[in-house]
Amino acid sequence: MAIINANLFSPETLYTSNSNSSIYIVNGKIETIDQVSASYLPDGCKIIDAQGAFLMPAFIEGHGHFSSLGLATFKINLFSCKSWMDVIELVKEKAVKLPKGTWIEGEGWHQEKWNNKNHLYEGYPEKELLDKYIPDHPVALFHASRHSAIVNQHTLDLLGWNTSTYIEGGDLIKKDAELSGMLIENAIEPVRDLLKAYYVEKQIPEKALLKANEICFENGITSFHDADTNFTEVSRIENLQKKEANFVNLYMMLHETLESLQQNKNQVQHLTTDRLTVQSIKRYMDGAIGNRGAWFFEDYSDADGNKGHCTLDIDEYYQTAKFALENNFQLCTHAIGDRANYEVLKCYNETLNTSKNARERRWRIEHSQHIRPQDIEAFVKNNILASVQTNHCTSDASYVEKRVGKERLKTSYLWKTFLNKRIHLNNGTDCPIEKVSPLLNIYSAISRKNDQGIGFNFEERLNIQEAISSYTIWNAYAAFQENYKGQLQKGFQADLVLLDKDLIHTAEKDPNEIKSTQILMTISNGEIVYNNL
Asked: Residue 188: pLDDT above 90?
């Protein structure tokens, strides 16, 4: 295959060319760049005329939830709701179409983004209206952060929960000596278990994976770092990839208990095929900022006495880190609050100090959002990666100062500071918590503004070259794949995306235009997997 008349761009090398450039692909790899002529090409070679469009390495999603991305299409989308009553109406519409007893799941609501704050208790919705209008279906509606949920009495009855129920690392909010239906952090996990069993019964998981694959290709994504998976999911994906000719390359983080990891390490340790890699372990040190679950040293500025949650057992976490080191797993830990980031950095450095090749371990902190100034250097010592989601900054912009106050906000979402300290950065959308679009995420990286123009700490913005790198070669580095993925170079994997706008010039002239940029074509391993040319 050859692509002609393209405007080529490659990050890091800053390889740019005019709109008459070409690229030649052989056996799924880049063979020749910008020196392709008709006489050079073999007979029968497929030629694609890019007509001056912008050709760059395909996007690598650096932190997302692959199966959840597909499952989201089977749920009620609550992202656009502006009030609790908006949510109720959507659930009522769904309920009338389903037999009694059928599960109803939704996700995406965010009370801080509602115009109407009626029907809230302690800042959260409560189940009274769900019980009134949807009493005959178990209902679970997950917050946009996916770290809390509101459920109805039907669901609480299935769980067998009451006011005496206690969940370590979580909370069941009470109202008038009864459960309000609002579940925080670890309290949502038993609900997820019930839903997983239901979806398996209905044979939804494989359909969801195929849908996620389709969505990724439509968005120019050919590789995906799955930030929470398990042995069952790995097996399901491995079998599905054997049947599907074209499938996203998945780099998967195992969220299994330490005991399970120890028992199954020989079965899956460093499983690598041409489209699947398993060499990382995932842990959650805290929750999210939206539901005040992120763990801080000091109280939330808008909730006296609340510092958030530590969501794991620290002793077991240190044992997991030791296991990861001894068995050559990358450790990837969710940490948002400053206390959570401190505890992760402390564990990482104490553990890695015993390793001769600590800097090559590339252990990651997923999110790395709120960092005390005195803790920044702790990233540098053992090459700990800051795995950020630039769209979280803009998504949180309308309320984060209320949560953390002006002083803590000064050291939040520190992308440029990380780079200036030579701390490796990589980027992701955290989909489906946020929209899967890498282009919207790149816009967030260079603007630090939400759709209402609200933003802060603009000195921490990335430039357009850095933003593109964060979604290509830097994500490849975070998965130990930088030697064959993420750039336009001879011998590199032919994972490419063709766009209708030149991102470099668009960022200079009108960055807002990046948001409306169209994916014209996605190429994975030299095969066209999405075509809108």
From this structure: yes
Classify 396 as helix, strand or coil. helix
Residues recorded for the chain: 533
pLDDT digits (tens, 9 = 90+) for 311-351: 999 999 999 999 999 999 999 999 999 999 999 999 999 99
Query: Which amino acid belongs to residue 214?
Result: E
* Residue 179 near residue 156 (C-beta atoms within 8 A): yes
Neighbour count for residue 143 (Cβ, 10 Å):
27
Q: How far apart are CA 382 and CA 466, in angstroms?
A: 23
CB-count burial class (<10 Å; 0-12, 13-18, 19+) for 274: exposed
Q: Which of the 8 DSSP states describes residue 333?
A: E
**Would you say 403 and 412 are in contact if contact means Cβ atoms under 8 Å apart?**
no
Half-sphere exposure of 400 (CA within 13 A, CB side): 25
pLDDT of 339-393, one tens digit each?
A: 999 999 999 999 999 998 999 999 999 999 999 999 999 999 999 999 999 999 9
DSSP letter, residue 449: B
State whether residue 265 is helix, strand or coil.
helix
**For residue 316, what pLDDT is reported?**
97
Question: pTM for the whole thing?
Answer: 0.88
Distances (CA, A) of 192 to 68, 76, 283: 12, 16, 17
Query: Are 130 and 156 spatial neighbours (Cβ–Cβ below 8 Å)?
Result: no
**C-beta neighbour count of 95 within 10 angstroms:** 18
Beta bridge partner(s), residue 182:
150
Name the 3-class secondary structure at 481: coil
Burial of 149 (0-12, 13-18, 19+ CB in 10 A): buried
The torsion of the CA quartet 248, 253, 255, 257, rounded to 10 degrees, works out to 130
Query: Do residues 82 and 114 lie in contact, with contact meaning Cβ atoms separated by under 8 Å?
Result: yes
pLDDT tens for each residue of 31-44: 998 877 777 788 88
- What percentage of the chain's residues is helix, strand, coil (to nearest 5)? 35, 25, 40
Judge whether residue 119 has pLDDT over 90: no
Per residue in 347-380, is it b (16+ CB within 10 Å) or e — as a string? bbbebbeeeeebeebbbbbbbbbbbeeeebebbe
Say which residue, 430 or 113, is predicted with more confidence. Answer: 430
Please report, in angstroms and rounded to a whole number, the separation of the first and last CA atoms in the chain.
Answer: 16
Cβ neighbours of residue 159 closer than 8 Å, sequence gap 6 or more = 190, 191, 194
Q: Which residues pair with 33 in a beta bridge?
A: 23
Please, what is the average pLDDT of the chain? 94
What pLDDT is recorded for position 269? 64
Picking from 125, 187, 123, 132, the residue whose alpha carbon sits closest to that of residue 154 is 132
The whole-number average pLDDT for the span 255-266 is: 91
d(CA 299, CA 385): 27
- Cα–Cα distance, 277 to 109 (Å, whole number): 33
CA 442/CA 388 separation, integer angstroms: 12
Whether 529 contacts 225, CB under 8 Å? no
How far is Cα 324 from Cα 342, in angstroms, rounded to an integer?
Answer: 19
Longest dimension (CA), the chain: 81
CA distance 1 to 9: 19
